[in-house]
Amino acid sequence: MPPKQSDSEKRPTIRDVAARAGVSVPTVSRALIGNYPVAPATRSKVLRAVRELDYVVNAHARALAGATTKTIAFIVDDVTGPFYAHIARGVETEAASQGRLCLLCTTHGDPERELAVVELMREQHAEAVIVVGGGYDDEHYTERMTYFARALDRAGSHLVLCGRPSLGEDVPATTVHYENESGAYAMTAHLLSAGHRTIAYLGRGPGLSTTDERVAGFRRAHADYGVPLDDTLILPGEFSKAAGYDRTQELLEWRSDVTAIFAATDMVAAGVLRALRKAGVQVPQDMSVAGFDDIPLAADLTPALTTVRVPHEDLGRESVRLALSREQGAPAGRAVLGTHIVVRESVAPPRQPRD
Amino acid sequence: MPPKQSDSEKRPTIRDVAARAGVSVPTVSRALIGNYPVAPATRSKVLRAVRELDYVVNAHARALAGATTKTIAFIVDDVTGPFYAHIARGVETEAASQGRLCLLCTTHGDPERELAVVELMREQHAEAVIVVGGGYDDEHYTERMTYFARALDRAGSHLVLCGRPSLGEDVPATTVHYENESGAYAMTAHLLSAGHRTIAYLGRGPGLSTTDERVAGFRRAHADYGVPLDDTLILPGEFSKAAGYDRTQELLEWRSDVTAIFAATDMVAAGVLRALRKAGVQVPQDMSVAGFDDIPLAADLTPALTTVRVPHEDLGRESVRLALSREQGAPAGRAVLGTHIVVRESVAPPRQPRD
DNA sequence: TTCCTATTCCTAACCGGTTTCTAAATTCGT
DNA sequence: ACGAATTTAGAAACCGGTTAGGAATAGGAA
Fold it and tell me: pTM of the prediction?
């Protein structure tokens, strides 16, 4: 019924609706928004015209005229990773439930692109710009991000850092983080308690806050347990299955005394498990493996992966909740969500306890 | 340097830039867009003012004034699933490389919400609206989607159906599909060739094109191999690990003659494998299992999953490529990407071949 | 009946850009 | 040195809405 062949060829404007309903343009606007008294009879005339013409407002015109934008921008490394995907889901779900639309951008791990994208978002006048994932420990980067926080704030928008440390007290950016360092601490303690004394940490990214914090927890646990830590056991590598696989193969030919591997990520752990299986190393009898994230398939790996649970979806949800609840000019919010270890089957005491 | 404390409090407009540079507003616009001759000296004055004021254009104003929107809308069930996540990545990557931004919406599998969201996208004037995933076989649904295709087309936008069948020749919507039916056919043929005669298909969604097509391939293979198909072996269930787990447990107590399970999805297959492991059924010795999608962790399940590879990322990329390359008013594009089976370790001949 | 107060709607101004059209300033040929 | 061609810049109109600020019409009290 609606398609209206005759007056097609162009999307109808509010003017067309006004003409058809026999009222003025502002009346149509008010009837639709409902923030101003309009006689019932008039309103129904307007609504009928809207239906007949199949009219929808022009979001850009509305945004330009001052009504709020109803848009939340969302920047991640790569939607593909389970980590990001679940945060994305949290963000999208919460945003949608508050009647907002999501603008998505990916950076593919390039700090330069991340900055460029945040800049792009300024053009869009999003209510909030949520940057997800680890930050980079680089002065130039930090400085520019701080600058963007101020620029967005000035423009009535707001920056949210999700899953990375704060930029400082005086920067107008909300931070939604999770217990990253203590999650790594707990897992390392778990391994040390089981009797492991030579543990490799696999997947340190240089200057990426995500791994820096985890390594810090790894270190602190060693210190608390009085176990000396060999720094060469903190191996670099990106957060991928391939990296986990490769680094593990190298590790196996290089050192035979390692009894446990703490992977920076469950994905990395999957690669580790694969390399160990190929090499005929039994997990957990000959080698314990731990991950981080608790992705959906962590329990389906063989053996089921012992890992650190991160409330990804809640992180996303909380980010938009905080951003939207904040009064203009109010102090930036802050939240830290908890993590805890999930014990499954990939960790056991080492075959020959060292002490 | 840029923050400019003095004239802050408001985002600068093009008018401010013009005033500061000592030129008219249109001149600033032209200097920035570069589609009109501007004297080098003037241009640099303008650029300097832009830098000093830290000016960025207002995307809404620009969109309203007629310049193209540079936005692509993207509608999926749930970003969390590997299937959608990879398509999303393809879409985002290609969109970004063509200088477009992505608008993301999720429907959580609700056809009503999907329609509502497409409607919402009309307000946004996106260049293209890409709907991802299976369509619903429901007359009301099909009719409204057809109507939206027309409405979007009329408004200068364009609908792309990604991963679902076309709406018909005369509907202005581009279709980017994959060999779904023949992928299922190939996998079923693979199972039949191995000697299986009683195969369960697990994860049929009622009226969802994704599964309908797969079931069709499942049927056709049985017919070609002259193997009678017991319809009660086509089990319903959503695309989740939990569903795979539950249905498999039920199946095991109900029928003992099934020698292979074809899961609608790798995620479902993960649940199937888990249920079988719990029940002490050896895979592939006692039961063969096949999946569909070839998600990243498919090779890391135990045993490594034999599955059908779907080029998710390419689907996403091709969707935006087709949408953007299309001339206004040109006939809607169409593409079908190939699938192929990936043989790993979860399928073997049945213990007691039946014929 | 008259005056006053609510209602309800319309006219006008504005949001921040882009584009067409016109005028001024320059360059050029001769 | 003069008129024509060519750049370059500005004025005005427009994109599609929203939000004050009046004017008209209605209803109620005196």
Answer: 0.91
